[in-house]
Structures are given as C-alpha cells and as structure tokens.
TrEMBL record:
Coiled coil: none annotated. Pfam families: SpoIIE. The keyword Hydrolase applies. This is PAC domain-containing protein. Keywords: Hydrolase. Signal peptide: none annotated. InterPro entries: Bact_Sigma-Reg (IPR052016), PAS-assoc_C (IPR000700), PAS-like_dom_sf (IPR035965), PPM-type-like_dom_sf (IPR036457), PPM-type_phosphatase-like_dom (IPR001932). PANTHER family: STAGE II SPORULATION PROTEIN E, STAGE II SPORULATION PROTEIN E-RELATED. It comes from Winogradskya humida. Residues 224-277 form the PAC domain. SMART domains: PP2C_SIG (SM00331).
Length: 546
C-alpha cells in the first residue's frame, strides 16, 4: 500500500466513497448456478454469515472485499441487515481492516484455502470474532459479537437446566472433547477434571445396554444421526440417559467431529407440551451449531443429504434416490426420513413442499426436524401428521403466505411383527410389489398439510412379507407436464414389475436404476423399502450400478 492510503482506510465512508473509484475497481461478480445455490443456502440459514468476493488492483493485490450473498441474520454495527449489505464493501463498514493483521489473514485464506479465525477485536461499542473460509475463490465469513454471546450463553444454560440436558462435542482431529456445564452436573463430575474420555464414559454404561449403544456408535460412524437411551451407574445410583448425536464430515466423507445432546430422563414426568418445547429448543440449537460446521465442510450437504448406499435398518433395507429438477434450481421441497428409533421400530417418511426456492427448502427443513423431534412423543403416524399439519398452518399464518402447503407419508415399521403402520396427507399412494404384481395401496383419509387447521388423519396397517417391495415417491415421478398422472403411474408400475422380474434377488438396485422422473421441472424423491431377515444377502453393491 502506498503512502497516504492508510488515511483512506481510516477516514470513514466519505473518504471511502471519494477514493474507491480510483483504487478499487468493481470485481467481476460470480454468476450462474454456483452463486444461486449459495444464496439459497445462506437465505435459509440462521445466524450471521456472508460471501465476499475479492477486489484487486491492476497488479492483483487484494485491496477490498465486496458482499455478494448474506444470511437474513447478517447485521453490522450500523444496523444494515441481510441483503442490504449486498453490493457494499468491507472497507466501507470496517475502515481500519486493511491496516490490521486481519487483512493479511483474509488474504492468506484466499491464497492458501486454509480457514482462519480472527479476534477478539474491538469495533464500535462491541467486541467481535470472525471466521473465514475460501469457497470457489471467494471468502465465506461468519462472525459473532462476543459481548452479546454471554447473554445467549445464559439463555442456552437456562434451556439446559429446564430440560435437564447438556451437550458434548468430540473433535476427532485434535482429540479434544468439550462439555457444557450442565453435562458435568448430569455426570456428577468436577469441571476442574475436564470432560471424560470416551473410554471413561463407556465404563459407566450398563453391560446389558452396551450392544444398543455400540450399534448407535456404528450408525454414527456411517454418517447417520442416532437417538439412543441407556443406563449408567454413577456413585452407586442408576441414571437413564438419552443421547441424540450427529457427525460432521469433510468433503471427502471423513468424520471430523461428533456433536451430541444428552438428557437425564431418569425422573421424566413432563407433559407432552413440555417435551415438545424441549425438543424444539434442542432442534434449534442443533441446527445453529450444525449450520456453521456444514458451511466449513460442504455447502451442498445443507440442502438434502442422500445416502449413496442402502440403509440397513432393523428388519428393513431402505434405498433412497433424489433427482433435482435441473442444474439451475437445486433447492426444492422434496424430502425423506428413514431412521431407527430407540424402541426398535423404524420411522419412514416422504414429503413434498409446494414450490421451489428458499421458502420451499426452509419449510422442508422445518418439517424434517419437527418430525424427528415429535416422533418421541407418539408411535402413531396419523398423530404425527396432525402435529405437522398444525405446524404448517402456524407457519403459513406467521409468514402470511396461505400457499404454504405440503403432502407427506409417514410410517412406522415394527420389525418383530413385520408390520407397517402408515398415514398420508394428500400424497400419491405407495406402490406394493408382491408375488410379481404391483398395485397402489388404498390410501387412508387425510388432507394436505397446511390447508385445514384441525384436520384429522387416519392410519392403515400393512403386514409385509419377505419378497415384498414397497415404493414411496413424490409426484415428480408420475406427473408429466403433457400427460396425466395416470399415464405416469402406469409407467412406474411397469418399471417395478420389470425390475422385480429381472432381478428378484436384488430388486432395489434394479428398480432405482430404471426409474426416471416424469416431470423435469419438478424434483423427485424415491424411497424403496424391502423387509429382510438375518440371512438376506447384502444388496448395497447393486444400488446405482454398484
């Protein structure tokens, strides 16, 4: 930087406006699907974050950073919020940045790709910390005001005490384990001793409960979220603990850290409403923490993670395929859920939020998280749909958007009896292939979600036999823009029959390789289910051509 430029950086917005046209030419803004995807993701995320593109002088030296995408919660010291920041530059808001060590740190991130954290530093009346990552040649930044984080920490601590829960994070790279204060109370451990190691906590678990806990750890290592309840012996007393955990991976799929929430449920006497409130707070905290980790790993994973191989769940093998509408519009409202529950059953769901874009993706995420949280309150899929319907009606009222609607199928599978209990909300009927013949299942009654506030949903029961194949899907599979849904459904039924006939021993992989979306303007999500026994052959290598 030549002599005299320091005064420009330190002189405030007036000096910036007068000088920027000479030293900071406008950068070439990113465009196309890449920027559209990142903007859609940031629009749906909580907390402050922004994507900034570098502004360079003719020699290539970094002289400024320009905001091109932000989260709705991105706010700076002068009160500008969200998209009001787009098109502005860092020197305009932080005139002293270029003369600080932070500027060199940001330049290193752009040059090397190594993320960095700066702060705390003083700006205005607050103290701040900033994290920066390189994304496609731009700078992805998240920040927090430290003097406000204490108040937020107090709110989280109050939530933990209310629900008698605490959180833990295990960094697999550094080996460091972090516990919240409440978790030390739950384990009756002196914080001065530090968090327990995984070996120490394993030693407290009852021997009878270790197999279930070990299975949950294996699921976590495969990238699946887990929910398990087990007993521990602490100072001669038995405690029942419920753990909800998730794993964060890098872009290569390597686990980076485990994050879990542990709740002491020994004397749980809360009402259903109290439990729903706690689960909502848990989900919100988990979303906020997972959002920052996911940005550092891979932005695309935030939209809809789809397992590349079939899931082995109790008594079932489940395969999932998701087909986006187009490369230009990757953010849609189709979703699925498939997970083992702590009682040994399996929760399955497929849904479709009306529309595309940020609103549909945000609503999709809210429905998925809410289903997972509410599933601990009831085994009845019809009751779960009733809860989701009231949630969507409330969301429509809050956003004043009566067009917020969705369809869904929710099912619970009992592997001991091979019994599937399911309910639907205005969704296309599942297809059952049995003995070489495929047909639609009669749908129990139930309107779309978000239309009738006090809607009542009915449940149906289906006993599955070995050799059966059940396919749940969204309407993009059968509704063609030129043909009616009956024509599309008939084509799908033929594909199912042909797949089962061609590969009766491995129909899941054959089926998903044959099915294609009927409507290229709509997303498609498919969930194929097959009951298995201990002797059923592993079919993972047949899926998607493997």
């Amino acid at each position: 930087m030549v002599r005299g430029e320091t005064g420009f950086w330190m002189g405030g917005r007036q000096a910036y406006a007068e000088a920027v046209q000479f030293v900071a030419p406008a950068p070439e803004p990113p465009s196309g699907p890449w920027l559209a995807v990142i903007r859609a993701v940031l629009d749906a995320m909580p907390g402050p974050a922004a994507l900034l593109v570098p502004v360079r002088d003719p020699s290539g030296r970094l002289i400024d950073l320009e905001y091109v995408a932000t989260t709705p919660g991105a706010v700076l010291g002068d009160g500008r919020l969200g998209r009001e920041l787009i098109g502005t530059r860092m020197a305009e808001e932080f005139p002293g940045t270029a003369a600080s060590d932070r500027w060199a740190a940001y330049a290193r991130v752009l040059e090397t790709g190594e993320p960095t954290e700066t702060g705390p530093f003083q700006h205005g009346e607050g103290r701040w910390r900033v994290r920066a990552h390189r994304v496609e040649g731009a700078l992805l930044m998240t920040w927090e005001r430290l003097d406000l984080s204490q108040e937020a920490g107090q709110r989280i601590a109050s939530t933990e005490r209310l629900g008698n829960l605490g959180w833990a994070e295990w960094d697999l790279v550094s080996g460091e384990t972090r516990w919240s204060e409440q978790l030390y109370r739950i384990f009756e451990r002196d914080p001065a001793l530090g968090a327990m190691t995984p070996v120490e906590t394993d030693a407290l678990v009852f021997p009878e409960d270790r197999p279930d806990r070990d299975l949950s750890l294996l699921s976590l290592q495969r990238g699946e979220s887990v929910d398990v309840t087990f007993r521990v012996l602490l100072h001669g007393r038995v405690k029942h603990l419920r753990a909800v955990a998730d794993v964060v991976r890098d872009t290569a799929g390597t686990p980076l850290r485990y994050f879990g929430i542990v709740q002491d449920v020994t004397a749980l006497e809360q009402s259903t409403q109290r439990l729903a409130d706690v689960e909502s707070q848990l989900a919100e905290q988990g979303r906020s923490l997972a959002a920052e980790h996911a940005l550092a790993a891979r932005l695309q994973q935030v939209i809809l993670p789809v397992p590349p191989e079939p899931l082995d769940l109790p008594g079932l093998k489940v395969a999932v395929r998701y087909l986006p509408a187009s490369q230009e519009d990757l953010v849609g409202g189709d979703w699925y859920h498939a997970a083992a529950m702590s009682d040994g059953s399996v929760l399955l769901a497929v849904g479709d939020v009306a529309g595309h874009g940020t609103q549909a993706a945000t609503t999709m995420a809210q429905l998925r998280y809410s289903l997972r949280a509410l599933a601990v309150t009831t085994r009845d899929p019809a009751v779960l749909l009733g809860h989701l319907n009231r949630l969507l009606c409330d969301l429509s009222e809050e956003s004043r958007n009566p067009e917020t609607t969705a369809t869904a199928i929710v099912a619970r599978y009992d592997p001991a009896r091979r019994r599937l209990t399911w309910a639907q909300a205005g969704h296309p009927p599942p297809l059952l292939s049995r003995a070489g013949r495929t047909a639609t299942l009669p749908r129990p009654s139930g309107p779309m979600l978000g239309v009738v506030e006090n809607a009542v949903y009915e449940a149906a029961v289906l006993d599955l036999a070995f050799g059966d194949l059940l396919l749940c899907y969204t309407d993009g599979l059968v509704e063609h823009r030129r043909n009616g849904p009956d024509d599309g459904l008939a084509s799908v039924i033929r594909s199912v029959d042909e797949a089962v006939a061609a590969a009766p021993g491995r129909p899941l992989g054959e089926l998903l390789s044959r099915l294609r979306q009927a409507n290229p303007d709509d997303d498609t999500c498919m969930l194929a289910v097959r009951p298995i026994s201990d002797q059923t052959r592993d079919l993972r290598r047949y899926v998607l051509g493997r």
